[in-house]
Please model this.
Amino acid sequence: MSLVQKRTELSKWYLPAIFQGLGWTFVKMVKNLANKKQMITLNYPEQKHEYSPRFKGNHVLTVKKDGSIRCTACMLCATNCPAECITIKAAEHEDPTVEKFPISYEIDMLRCVFCGFCEEACPVDAIRMGPEWQRPAVNGANFVYDLKELAYRPSLKGGIVSVVDETDRHKAGI
Amino acid sequence: MAEVKYLSEHYHKPEYRGLAGYKANGGYAMLEKALKMQPQQIIDEVKASGLRGRGGAGFPTGMKWGFLPKNGEPRYLLCNADESEPGTFKDRVMMEKAPHQLIEGMIISAYAVGAKKAYIYIRGEYMGPAAILEEAIAEAKKAGYIGKNILGSGVDVELDLYLGAGAYICGEETGLISSLEGFKGQPKLKPPFPAVQGYLKKPTIVNNVETLAAVVNIIRDGGQGYRKYGTEKSAGTKLFSLSGAVQKPGTYEVPLGYKLMDFINNECGGLLPGRKLKGVIPGGSSAPILSAEECMDATLDYENMAAKGSMLGSGAIIVIDDSYCMVDVLSTITHFYHHESCGQCTPCREGTGWVQKIVHGIVHGNGKPGDVDLLLKIADNMKGRTICALSDAAALPVLSFVTKYREEFEYFIKEKKSKVKGTQIYAQLNPSEMGAH
Amino acid sequence: MPESNNTAAPATEPKMLKMTINGKEVEVKEGTSIIEAYSQHGMSIAHYCWHPGLSVAGVCRLCMVEIEGNPRLQIACNTAVTDGMKVNNESEKVKDAVKWGLDFHLINHPLDCPICDQAGECGLQDQYMAYGKYTPEMAEKKVKKHKVVDLGPRVVLDSERCILCSRCVRFTDEVSKTNELGIFNRGDRAEIGTFEGKPLDNNYSLNTVDICPVGALTSKDFRFRQRVWFLKEHNSICTGCSTGCNTRVFYNKEGLFRIKPRYNKDINGYWMTDTGRDAYKFVNKEARLLDARVVSNGRGEWIAPKLAARKAGEALKGAGKSVALVVTGQYMNEEYEALLSYFKNEVGTDRVFHWINNPETFDSFDGLLARGDKNPNTKGLLAEMAKQGFTAQWRELAEGLQTGAIKTVVVAGPENQAVFPDLKAKIMELSKASKLVWLQAGKNDQLEALTGDVTLIPLKTYVEKTGTYVNYAGIAQKVHKGLTVVPNALSLVEVVALMKGEELPADDTYNQVGLGRVHNEFTMVRGTL
Model:
């Protein structure tokens, strides 16, 4: 389909339409300056949209009440991961009631497809997908998030406490 | 027929305990007589007498002896004095009143089966009877009734006493053998049966105290003479230990085939005043309970009890009247079996614990609506699934209590209090104290 | 009946009995138990406590079968087959009994599968999938027992997971005859344990971990290192000693993780030694020589092994009796054949010396499996040496080095360096030669530190090549290539071919056997590209 523009006499008078449009912009600007609350644009990246807590964004490793990592290194997330982006190294914990814990937990965010299977596979609510997702980096390796990043990054303010707790489970005799 | 003094003829005489008193009342005469007989003759007499094992299973003793291989392989005779069934205390009476009767019976039996070595395995808690037996064995050894060339007949029989460490499971014959061998008292797989491969992998006969003592009477009166008491299939007399809600509990000797209600009303003086019969456990805690109606026409013999779905067992009759809460009684029984399971077979090890937890839960007011059916299901699956009969012994009371007194269990679960006592039975106790080990 | 006269019929074949298993007619030998009949005919039957290498305990009560004419279910492990017997383990009655048997096993099981190493190869998981899949009815608290109990240097116990099948107790009782383990306490408080001051430290202790049907006994060495479903399996032979136990090695891309025994009734039965299980450690990359090292004029450099082998071959060609070859019994028949015939025919020397691990303990035997001869193929080497007519004595090597008659020494060193206690001394001795060519799989700091004219060539280990080992009894066993750990490494056959100046077939060196999960290494370097 080709667009044929008819050059008529009237079409020479484009300036009024431009001023009409600019005027509208100007009116909005003045209105917004007068009432900043109504303004719908954001000062990205200083300002960001709040996503719903159920949004499947970057992963969060939850922590126990004492702040230690909740994950038991069962590797079900790694097994379930269709993108094979989770790498865990397990070790023996000095506390025999904990027994197994991850000394290294890495997620390659560039491979991750944010399917949420890891969250579903986790038997102890140790991994969740959070609302934040915009994380730039200058280097591919920076997208491999380690344990510290996943559990204790500044935006988590010391870590998210999981709903399952070992001491509660022990008390209940589970 | 009423109470008889056949085995227990001289039990009322205190001197009967010692060797001199025993001999004065005709003791060890039968040993002399038996040693003049051929071993096969003795076995035939025992077979003819129709004597059945008095330990619980009621297996014909003569037949058991006949299972021994006929070659000259060394063999053992063990006396099972590990009387641990709750409610049973007849062997204790026999050992305390007439230790020499047991010893004489054992020497005769050992001679009959060809054993050179015999042991009495007595339960660890029976310190008193053990001391009495020990003394009696020493006396008999001194008098030449035990040892080499007994009474100049050329027969050698050694007899020793072995004190267990107090485990119910060691009353099971292969468990007893394991314990005697120095291992953990755990039943062994059958086959091979002990008569083929038992103590130290040699043919072994294990008999109850009362069975071995009765051999003396069989030698005295002959096989047919022994049958003057009892019924066709349950010959002879039996000591019954009666406990529970009667006026005169204790050990009584009555002929087999005696009416249960007559026994309770005549010998034991009847129920406590103002009480009504609720049920009778006829053969120790492992026997299924008989309800009051079933008791009315019950007779004390192996066939009648089997026909009623219960068993005569070791003759421990426990009378329960209407002041008892059946949930409470079952709770005690399940506690016992949970404590005594040896832990070898899974259905018993886990099942006894599970049942105990559920029944304790009900008693503590934590019962759940499905518990009664669950108890039945668990007990049903514990029954007949293990090496020895302990699992059955734990399952049968559960099955019979829950079927026959179901409304009491359901009331307790629903109302969280006993139908009989009107309270939670253990409410005043700290739950952790109950069933804690 | 005892044999009373010697005119009795000569020993005949055991009588065969006809029986029907699940409607299928089979024949078994007299004296077979039902469970053996099932396993002989490849039919599955649930069981935990029964193990073909141990006595019958009959405690798990899971191998229930229905025998025609018997109202009660019987356990298959303690019931002997009789002629015309009809058994069935597929009826609803049996399935219900097994389901309940399983339920009894599971009521006090902690279900900590997420942190249990057995998950994935656990008997409870398997049977639950086959017979269970029910809603648990146990609402009461579970029995608490000891966790993470240190039983010995290699084994950890978790009593809560234990189902008390007593396999491990029977193993220490009947096979290793060391009796360390016992069951303490009774009822559902029963626990496996060791006696005070008697840890489970025999050389067969890890077999208890293998036969444990649940995760109660775990190997300290393998503990938490991998989930089993990430591992692949390859049939191999243990090269830890001259017994040649049949093994399965478990590996993934990161290397080998563990070794388990494989049944062979002529050699090892169901078992293997703990020392043999360490035979994976020298295979992994951390312990390996990755490239060839050539030291000349005091300067060492790492070069491609193929190039190093070619260069070494040029110097050896026709060098005659100034060349000595030292060989250990750790290589395969095919390699010996190539190597020894090369030295006889192309190099032209008869100075070939057999280096054994430890002359004092060489002939020792622990009565079960472990032998003092820590080489998998001493027999094969001796046969090849006899075939080529090499009879040189060690003394001649020392003399030759002293007098300078031997200038070049080529060593096919030990693959498993740990079993050669005289390795250091030998390196010192042999490095006196003016030129040393050392062929070996593992890395060795002492070798790398040598100055003078030294060439180190990395070799393949037993899982990376195909060939034959001959064990102490003369049984030849073939192993196949399973995986590649060091892509540059060469086998002795390849080294000889390169020394002769031949080309290698192109495909082999980088051929990775399927490794399933491949670690995404690309992202590590992506940012720097």
In short: Chain A has a mean pLDDT of 86. The interface with chain C takes residues 72-76, 79, 84-85, 87, 90-92, 96-97, 99-100, 108, 110-111, 123-124, 138-144, 173-174 of chain A (CB under 8 Å). The CA atoms of residues 20 and 26 of chain A lie 10 Å apart. The longest helix of chain A spans residues 15-34.
